[in-house]
Amino acid sequence: MDRPSLGAVAIGRNEGDRLKACLRSLTAVCDLVVYVDSGSSDDSVEFARSLGVHVVELDQARPFTAARARNAGFERLVSENSPPEFVQFVDGDCRVEAGWLQAGLTELSGDARLGLVTGWRSEIHPEASVYNAMFQMDWHRPAGEIATCGGDMMVRTKAFREIGGFNPRVIAAEDDDFCLRLGKAGWALRRLPVLMTWHDADMKSFGPWWKRSMRDGHGFAQVGQMHPPHFQRERLRVWGYGLVLPLIFLAGLLLFPWLSLAVLMIYALSWLRTAAGLRRRDLTRGMAIRQAALLTLSKIPNLFGMLTYYRRRLSGDDMKIIEYK
Fold first, then answer.
1. Of 67, 72, 133, 218, whose CA is between 20 and 30 Å from 283?
2. Is 224 exposed, middle or buried (0-12, 13-18, 19+ CB in 10 A)?
3. pLDDT confidence of 266, banded at 50, 70, 90?
4. Membrane-spanning residues where (predicted)?
């Protein structure tokens, strides 16, 4: 039996060598590859074309979002006379693992209920920084039936069309929104116990981590508002640890010093409890303590991101991406 047709959409901006590795990992297997560029100033577009990859350059007059880029890539794919039956979406800072594309095709072809399959993403250099190591911890999720996944996914073209693709106004957690709508439409989603992509975060300083955490908070608020009760636990933690406790701490400094001390103890207990949980996942003591400290602190930038969404929603401002690279 002939192999089902497979297209791929890679998205990126100034990804350099990471994009080159990404596209090379796709062109050897996929019938058609589209690269969607969001205003790169490097040689991304020229390199993609040198491989025979179709390029879509997004209009810079409109706000860039990953959702908008993926939709544009999909539309370019299906504009062909024989559009692919399945589409692999991948971020330009990821290299697709050899063997994944066939594994995903086999799973989707064998189960007509499946609208999407995904696999495991792994960090290329988790040892390079505590931030990279945190990504590595977050990428590895249990295999099986799932409700949501990240942006690296293989999707049935029919399912993508049925739900209208990604929502271009969602600047963060757009993949959660897409997956939730796919599930509500009756499609099954599955994570395979197979290595899918190698991610290169290359995050080595506090500033980019802070901005990415702000973007996460924006996603908690926006997608949580669109799909209650999704992200409800995350939002409650942000309100509690990012707003209520800091306000109580400040009030305690003015009125009751013991109250401020109690707040510090709550943060310390949260930090220690998180570190203990990370230790159970085989992290070294030092790495667990460092990651737990950042996870405890992350509620502050999460709060700023959530407030940014609420301000934009009330004022009618554009939902612009929060840059962190």
1. 218
2. buried
3. very high
4. 238-268
Q: What is the pLDDT of residue 249?
A: 97
Tokens of 259: 């109250």
Classify residue 127 by its DSSP letter: G
Strands, DSSP E only, in 134-243? 144-145, 153-156, 188-199
Asked if residue 124 lies in contact with residue 198, where contact means CB atoms within 8 angstroms, the answer is yes
The phi-psi region of residue 104 (left if phi > 0; otherwise alpha if psi is between -120 and 50; otherwise beta) is alpha
Q: Which residues contact 247 (CB under 8 A, 6 or more apart)?
A: none
- Domain endpoint, select from 179, 203, 227: 203
234: number of Cβ within 10 Å: 19
CATH for 53: 3.90.550.10
The answer to the question of residue 1 being in a domain is no
Asked if 62 contacts 319 with a C-beta cutoff of 8 angstroms, the reply is: no
pTM metric for this prediction? 0.95
Name which of 141, 145, 137 is nearest 115 in CA terms: 145
